[in-house]
């Protein structure tokens, strides 16, 4: 079973970093936090996310990928996402990182994503809406995936 997992808002706490960034309320970054310099570099993990993803990685039933979008006009973000994944999941995870604006074109059984954008809503497998009433946290997601 192939599981894709979004990065920002699911594994990494983008909102916390945005709120703390000194330029977040200034033009041209207001409303475009994905353009903030260095915003993706040192994101804190969302509580429980690293442990949950590692559990899925260790489960022989699953093949796990990170499926994220990155801003075209903030190319540092691409590097920082790649380094972030290695920092928390090790070198073996580097080539499991997929960056695209068209998540709907990626094949898989599940996509865990907090937002419908960038093709998440149109994903051909099952979209698990992280943060929704049905899946408010990682505990609920593990419950579903580990007990089919
Ligand atoms: Mg997200």
From the structure above, extract its key features.
148 residues, alpha/beta, Rossmann fold
Write a structural description.
InterPro entries: 5'(3')-deoxyribonucleotidase, HAD-like_sf, HAD_sf. Belongs to the 5'(3')-deoxyribonucleotidase family. This protein has a single domain, classed as Rossmann fold (3-Layer(aba) Sandwich). The protein is built from 4 helices and 5 strands; from the N terminus they run βααβαβββα. With 148 residues, the protein is of the alpha/beta class. The model has no long low-confidence stretch (mean pLDDT 96). The structure holds magnesium ion (MG).
- Report how far the terminal alpha carbons are from each other: 11 Å
Shape: globular
Name of the CATH superfamily: HAD superfamily/HAD-like
Specify the number of helices. 4
Main sheet: strands, sense, barrel: 5 strands, parallel
CATH architecture: 3-Layer(aba) Sandwich
Any idea what the radius of gyration is?
15 Å
The CATH topology label is: Rossmann fold
Poorly predicted runs: none
Heterogens:
magnesium ion
Q: Output the CATH class name.
A: Alpha Beta
Secondary structure: helix percent: 25-40%
Beta-strand residue fraction: 5-15%
* Mean pLDDT figure: 96
- Protein structure class: alpha/beta
The largest beta-sheet arranges its strands as 3-2-1-4-5
What is the total domain count?
A: 1
> What is the tally of beta strands?
5
InterPro entries: 5'(3')-deoxyribonucleotidase (IPR010708), HAD-like_sf (IPR036412), HAD_sf (IPR023214)
Protein name: 5'(3')-deoxyribonucleotidase
GO molecular function: 5'-nucleotidase activity
Pfam families: NT5C
